[in-house]
Amino acid sequence: MLLTTFVLAGSAMGFTPRAAKSKSSVYGPKRRAIAMANAERYDWAREQREEVLTKAEGAVNQPDDALWRSIHSWEVPRAIGVNRDHGCPNCGQAIYGDRGSNLYAFAASGVKEPWKVQCPNCEELFPKNDFLAFYKSGISEKDGFFHYADADRSLLFNVDHPDPNDPKHKWCVDDGRGWIDEHGHQHQFIATYMYRSAWRVPIYDLAQAYALTGDTRYAHKAFVLLDRLADMYPNLEGKRGQILNFEPGSYWNGIFGPDYWAGGGWASLAMAYDMIYDALPELSDALSFIQAQEKRYEVPNSKASLDDVKKHIEQRLFIDRFSKRGTYSMNGTITEMCEAKVDLVLRDEEAIADFAEVHLPRIVLSRFLNDDGSGNERSVGYDGGAFGNYCSLLVELTDLDPRLAKSCLEKSPKFREVFNFWPDIWCINGYLPNIGDSHGGPGNRTGIPCPSDAYLRLFDLTGEPRYAHIALLAVGGDKEKLPRSIWQPDPEGLIERAHEAYTKAGPWRTPSLVKRDYKLGILRTSHAKSPAALWLFYSPAAGMSSHSHLDALNFGLFANGQSIIVDQGYPLYTGGWPSRWEWTSNTRSHATVVVDGECQQHADGGALLGFAGKDGVQFIAAEARGAYKQVSQYRRT
Description:
The protein is built from 20 helices and twelve strands.
């Protein structure tokens, strides 16, 4: 048996896994059998299975060597976009259309030629050199990976202008580290292609296809990919010149992409490994291929036995990454939730048994989560993103072991309140207050930022009709539109029970309320046919998030089925754009008072002065001390 022992530095982690992985713990035989039975019984489950198999089809039919080589070198950088606002080298700013600068303007997948990105306006392809030829020239016979030191730089020229004397001989030529134009602007053609296309490796799709069918062909291919990825995964570290940040010499931290998106992919790799783990003893052909590659190329560890390869994957894909927490540091406690999922895979039943004691306190840290279930970003968009991860975790825990999920809800009132906060602030069944960076945009209708499946699980765990009501309300009351999961035991029975509870209990009407931790009050009318809601946000947090706005005492109004007083919501693009600070995040773009033409200070001095939310006359009064230093009172009633 492999012994997996590692110590995670820092009090943020606070646990030391010791036990070895010995079986599929999250996607074990019972769970796989449930999925297969659902696929035999229900048309919708068969459709879910077929969707997975379609995604995996291309990879399962590829030769092992081709898949092995699809794991690219860490030396070739990645980027989320070609440039910030420098346009297309061919048609300039016309690439952006009416919207203005766009980080994601270039197409990088579905392009007719590989290793190219395309301008959607003029349809020009970039870069102009044959990057694939350059890349192949740099693949080392020692380790099978591309290295710049081995590549033939004579191949770096514009293939449409091969004459070295041609002025365009080097125009839009990218060696993977970006092309610098005559103005000193960096254009990241290949790095964008790498991140948004080349690194979309279907490991999870293959593993899920095995788990849904028991067909070891899928597990075989996933195993080959996981092993090869483990050869190079510890080398993925964005700050080491690998994740380009638009300006020459500027880099993000992260794994494949920026750190704030990285943890989910890492946790998905762990789940993929868990899905195929029970099949590994049957994959003798895959093991033979892996061992043949070890004899031909230099690899980090011995692969003489199946246990060696398991240890190689567990150590280099998962255990080593815990010590590089900065490469997957995300909003709220998403980081901790991803670590919890990886630990569930690595430590099997031990991690399941102590989850509520070890991981639960870490995923409800007060720094990121308030007692009322709200996040501390002071941004509905980004706090909502963290909430979506809480929902995903609850679904995973419930389907794994309902007793574990119920225990977490009972042991942590704060964890339970996470699922109450968002329905509580949903107004007139269609809108969330646009506080801070909000993905809905000005006046857009927004649902609860989570699919109904979490609320169906909550209803099943607690028996509370309100959760059934929320699940159905999110789909317009139509039970046929409720999400079904192929992994879920008795999915149709749960839906019938939820619909019955929803029908018997009648509609739930959320009262006027104050979320004191979030500094948000909402006044609601009780008229079923013509609901209205007025909200007041009385203090963004000081220094907590770049996604909050300078908008103390901002308010909004929803009535007649639409947004009447509209907030800007999300900026045109995140980051330090001039329009963000001069308008979107600035006090002047919000429904609050500007003093002396100045922007507010980012101070957390908000206080509730009074609230009455019963039927009849309702009111709310609050102040934001510190918003303006030159005034003694800054209040709104």
